[in-house]
Amino acid sequence: MRLTQSSCFVIAFALLLFGANICSGQTAAQRQAITKINNQMVEAGKLYGSKKLKDCAALVKTIQADIDSLTTSGDQKVIRALRPTYSRLQKAHSLLELEGYTLPALKPLNPPKPKPGSDAAMGVSFSKSVAPILVSNCGRCHVNRAQGRFSMSTFENLMRGQNNNTVIFPGDATGSRLIEVIDDGEMPPSGEVKAEEVAILKKWIAEGAKYDGADKAVSLNDLAKAADPDAPVVDEAKVVMATGKETVSFAFDIAPIFIKNCNGCHYDIQNNASGGLNLSTFRQLIRGGDTGQIIVQGKPAESLLVKRIKGEGGARMPARRPALKPEEIAKIEKWILEGGTFDAKDERQDIKPIFELAKATKASHEELMADRLAASKTNWKLFMPNTDPTMVETKSFVLFGDMSETVLNDYAKLAEKLTPKINRMFLGGSGPLVKGRATLYLFKQRYDYSEFGKMVERRELPKEWKGHFRYDIVNAYGAIILPRNDDEYSEEAMLAQQIAGVLVANLGVETPTWFSEGAARAAAQKTAPKDPRVLGWKERWPQVLAKMQTGDEFVRGQLPPEDAVIAGYVFVSKLMGNRSKFNNLIKALRNGNDFNRAFSVIYGGTPSEVIRGTKRKR
What we know:
By secondary structure, this protein is mainly alpha-helical. 52% of the residues lie in helices and 4% in strands. It folds into 4 domains: 5-98; 126-227, no CATH class; 250-357, no CATH class; 365-617, Glutaredoxin (3-Layer(aba) Sandwich). The chain has a 5-stranded mixed β-sheet, sandwiched between helices.
């Protein structure tokens, strides 16, 4: 039962404008207490409208406590007078929960008096009557998933409510949020619950909302199926991984169709997706929207997605845009026919980087080179929008900087001179450093380097860093602050570090950061052993070592960035001391082997096991 942004404004105004309630038939003290509560509701509405959410939450807690105190006696006149106020309180409660505030669970306004004996149902059967109604009307959004943070997957979850806010008050059907949204037509968002079914739900709640099954944790789908074996039960969507035999790839062929044609309504959206259908991730795609799943894996003709993009059974999609091309529709149909499979790592990841990675993997050297060049120009404009870069291209690199072309050419020549040495150091082959070339961003000022980190990488770069690299197939670059004088640090070591980092990160399947960073610094040390930065790493190592208990904290990501890189540098340097084993590891990575598996075979254990074993020997 998701609250839309428009609902939030409506409820905020309702709290503000309709807080008053007519009190009749109560004692003077009760009328005074009710008036106080109504005034508090008005104040809560003002606080919410003014975005003073913390104060609003505190006041709502007070209102809850006052209502609980006032209704303890079960006085029906008081309960009737408070019912409209309580309804507004429920809505305010949900709004504040969505804003991240934890509030006490709402108690029923009119709880049924406990009766001795068994909880067995006497009257409407939940298992045989209520569960099938909920599954058929609410199954896709609230039984198979918890849309709006409300799950009906089991009786326990149903009674727990939305964000632990009760939606069913046994004995009080009209005061139950579940009935309220059905009567108001808010739920279900498409279609409506039949009048006779609503009557059954109300009667069940009025009779105490009892459970007549053996286990309250049983799925409502199972209860509905047992009640009527022939009734359709909504199957939960599942992610089916690609086998490699498919002719259509989701990552490469289907994702770009959605990105291009569905943005604004179902992709790259700031607010709620149209019709509850969000295509931002693969998992959201297969879950579908308010009308249910949009693909039936293996059956394109039965898939709502295909029907709608063809204009069958409703308005053609995409709305208010040109129709998809016949070849695009054919790809979608073929993809569904082949199982609607997923050929990336994380079904919860945004589909755009999934597509970019697939595109970069399939691209030729020249195609990837063109894409990286365009991306590098875009990156430059992010952190230096008012300064056009100087650009120099070589066989292995494209360099960007805010200096003269003559100076940038000198650095380009130095980078190309260092590349064969780095290749030999890590057994690289001839030709370009990496497919698609690498970009080198050169900065004269620390400020520009820091802005690069903030605007391009969305992070604060460690103050100790004078440069760093990044490689993830889509991106391949080094970013460097140039030394102000010859004594500050070595240009050769700095360039060698970034070049080696990109090369080593490119070698294997998921090469860990500590290894590529460590190898990069080892390359800097071999290029300029007396470089002030290199000497500084050695001086800092005892301090880093003192922080570690087991020695492998840097492998497990438990050290600050600079300390982790220094520890990785020391460990990789030791690995390089046994040239035979290290060469075998690099060869294994170049042949496409997984890093952890190759390392374990060559060194007789995982990196953590090797580090801890070395420490024990000491």
